[in-house]
Amino acid sequence: MDSLPAIRITQLRKLYGAKAAVDGLNLTVPRGCFFGFLGPNGAGKTTTIKMLMGLAPPTSGAIEILGLPMPQAENEIKARIGLVPDETLLFEQLTGLEFLQFVGRMYGLARSIARERAVELLHLFELDGASGQLVGEYSKGMRKRLAMAASMIHRPELFLMDEPFEGVDAVGARMMKNLLLEQVRRGATVFLTSHVLEVVERLCDRVAIIHQGKLIMESSMADLRLGGETLEDLFVRAIGGERRREALEWL
Predict the structure, then answer these.
(1) Under DSSP, is residue 26 helix (H, G, I), strand (E, B) or coil?
(2) Residue 190, C-beta contacts closer than 8 angstroms, at least 6 positions apart
(3) According to the model, what pLDDT value does residue 237 have?
(4) 115 to each of 102, 103, 126, 179, how far by Cα in Å?
(5) pLDDT digit string, tens, across residues 216-240
(6) What confidence tens digit (pLDDT) does each residue in 176-224 have?
(7) Could you give the dihedral angle defined by the CA atoms of residues 54, 21, 222 and 191, in that order, rounded to the nearest 10 degrees?
């Protein structure tokens, strides 16, 4: 079972009206991999993540996560993955400690273990000083830290993360990156979207680029480095971002 990929996407499509947000996507993510999923705004990244999370039903195509079909085995899949969505969907009327305990209980942890892990995670993410504060009063960076803490409380096999470092200060982002790298070292898989290509280049083993709902490139970072280009150079060239733009005389 563990030889199966963490994610296998086959001919995945998602239509909104007549527009295809994701259009015939094929993608395989190996286990134990730090995988960067890139694309310009509106390329279909968040739509793809939402389908992987079970938050948006595909129009057609197939998704397998950890060897299980989505949505047929949705409950079993969700018990084995950790989620950090782009919009941190947190319960704002709970305190940070209450929220983490709630998430732990939802994942089936015993009450005492959920509380113990919640306290430890709040300390690890430097939120213990705000453990009694309502989540609705948290800053964006604090909410991202809390969301990542919640994603880890049940020690998942796969992390699905949509812009997890957005709004997080440099110290917090460094700590979060190190934690994710440690999870990969223990055998977990991270599937990450980010607009910060330097972060992806530094963290990821493999990358894929999606544009207008279609996969236009997939490679290991090792192979990309052989070409001597930065990830930013390759990304801009792949999506046609080097087209000449006329200068504005007044600018």
Answers:
(1) strand
(2) 33, 34, 35, 158, 159, 161, 180, 183, 184
(3) 85
(4) 9, 10, 16, 20
(5) 999 999 888 887 788 888 888 888 7
(6) 999 999 999 999 999 999 888 988 999 999 999 999 999 999 999 988 8
(7) -20
The residues with which 180 forms a beta bridge, in sequence order, are: none
Contacts of 159 (CB under 8 A, 6+ apart): 81, 82, 83, 84, 151, 180, 183, 188, 189, 190, 191, 192
Please give the sequence-ordered ranges of beta strands (E in DSSP) within the chain, or none if there are none: 7-16, 19-29, 34-38, 60-65, 68-70, 81-84, 158-162, 189-193, 206-211, 214-220
- Kindly state the tokens that stand for 69: 């079909």
- Which tokens belong to 240? 């046609």
pLDDT band for 2, please (50, 70, 90 cuts).
low
- What is the rounded average pLDDT for all residues in the chain? 91
Tell me how far apart the alpha carbons of residues 11 and 25 are, in angstroms, rounded to a whole number: 5
> What residue ranges define each of the domains in the chain, with the CATH number in brackets?
7-90+138-238 (3.40.50.300)
117/130 Cα distance (integer angstroms): 16
d(CA 7, CA 26): 10
CA distance 123 to 167: 20
